[in-house]
Specification:
Length: 428
């Protein structure tokens, strides 16, 4: 019988191994229970920033209804049915925000035709590599720095008076948190778990307990937990154990491979960022002039306007609505999407000199699973302490769930040689 193995990669000097001494996880009824660090979900370690933003109040802040020209979107947590200048096809700008878009299924696929299972074939095993859900901005990212600086000037009264479409800025403040999941991000992972259960629940052997892998970063851990709750239910810990791999400099981790690829963090790997900046100065010229006319005292440059555009998806997933969204035309949102395409292509995909190197450790692990052996040597980010032991690198599962970051997934797709992501993108 023909068997199919499905590998899913949705939406994608070496340091010491990610291993710490056993820690006491709980003490109940006088009995001490200890677990190794790599199975420890609480208390968290190396969690990264975990600041929570102000709670949303969409019932009060939503300016809808927008009139007959708005695009129709069924009732949902986020207000995305906005009237956008230039949108003549009733399309959604929230499909043009790259990795910042609230999750939506891609109707066109990713260069792979969806086909029914051929007669005589069976699905015996599935490998899922999954991104985290929607979240707050990265600490120190452009949107966070611009938003904080603008809000400070508004509060101090030094930003002047904003008019017209920018008048909301006169009372605006920066309320976003940092890096952790927002509520809809939790929903995205839970819903994905439910979806994957409908697709592959039959593969789960109810007499076993699987190992799923994620990293110590808070949004990565929580994403894995919400996915598991969607797949197995709230008692998912009876069915799966999370292996928590340290995400920090000096620790090998194929789910965050950039930490052990030094060149990926240097200017040699910033080609995508540079190309995106060139493109931003082209497609945002009109927007910069248009918004500057509404701000006689505060001087906007193209970078500021790009950060304002970036605040739209971040505020939308955090609060349900953002007044930044309809400042831009539909064509400018298409330009925004392309800026993200350029960034990923040059920083993480085939145009990056380090893309393959960042993703190769995960490819090693997949091959080891398929060839049914642990890793005994590696020149990559693969963690030998964990990958050389079937307790932490099992070889007999029918379901494998791994959770990673978008940039790392892009590098893994590149290392796999999936050339539908390879076309060179011009920056003009």
């Amino acid at each position: 019988m023909l068997s199919y193995l499905l590998l899913f990669l949705p939406l994608i000097s070496f340091g010491r191994a990610a291993y710490l001494d056993k820690k006491q996880a709980s003490t109940e009824g006088g009995t001490s229970t200890t677990v190794p660090q790599y199975f420890q979900t609480t208390p968290e370690i190396y969690a990264g920033p975990t600041a929570t933003g102000v709670a949303p109040f969409l019932a009060a802040t939503n300016p809808a209804p927008f009139g007959a020209t708005r695009s129709f979107v069924a009732n949902a947590p986020l207000e995305t049915a906005l009237p956008i200048v230039g949108d003549t096809q009733n399309a959604s700008i929230f499909h043009l925000m790259g990795q910042l878009s609230p999750y939506f299924p891609n109707p066109d696929g990713f260069g792979v035709q969806e086909m029914a299972l051929p007669p005589g074939a069976s699905i015996d095993q599935v490998h899922v590599l999954h991104r985290h859900g929607s979240r707050y901005p990265t600490t120190g990212a452009g949107a966070q720095k611009f938003g904080t600086a603008l809000a400070s000037q508004i509060k101090a009264g030094t930003a002047g008076n904003f008019t017209g479409a920018l008048s909301f800025l006169n009372s605006w403040s920066y309320k976003l948190g940092a890096e952790i999941l927002v509520p809809v991000g939790r929903q995205e992972l839970f819903d994905s778990g439910v979806l994957h259960y409908y697709d592959y629940g039959h593969l789960y052997n109810t007499s076993t307990k699987i190992i799923a892998r994620t990293t110590t970063q808070d949004r990565m851990l929580k994403s894995a937990e919400y996915f598991m709750a969607g797949f197995f239910g709230l008692e998912w810990t009876n069915n799966a154990t999370l292996e928590i791999i340290i995400e920090e400099e000096g620790f090998n981790n194929s789910l965050a491979g950039y930490f052990q690829c030094n060149n990926s963090n240097l200017v040699v790997s910033e080609g995508g960022t540079n190309a995106s900046m060139v493109w931003e100065n082209i497609y945002l010229q009109n927007a910069t002039k248009r918004l500057q006319a509404l701000s006689p005292d505060f001087k906007f440059n193209v970078s500021d306007v790009y950060n304002m555009q970036t605040l739209c998806p971040y505020e939308t997933v955090a609060f349900g609505y953002s007044a930044f969204c309809d400042l831009f035309t539909y064509q400018e949102w298409e330009g925004f999407e392309y800026s993200i395409d350029l960034s990923f292509a040059g920083n993480n995909y085939f145009q990056s000199p380090t893309g393959r190197a960042v993703g190769i450790g995960y490819v090693q692990e997949i091959l080891a699973r398929l060839q049914h052996h642990v890793l005994t040597t590696t020149g990559t980010q693969a963690n030998l302490t964990l990958d050389n032991n079937t307790r932490t690198f099992p070889l007999n599962q029918t379901l494998y769930f791994d959770f990673s970051h978008d940039t790392n997934i892009a590098a893994i797709l590149t290392a796999f040689g999936l050339v539908q992501f390879a076309p060179v993108l011009p920056n003009y």
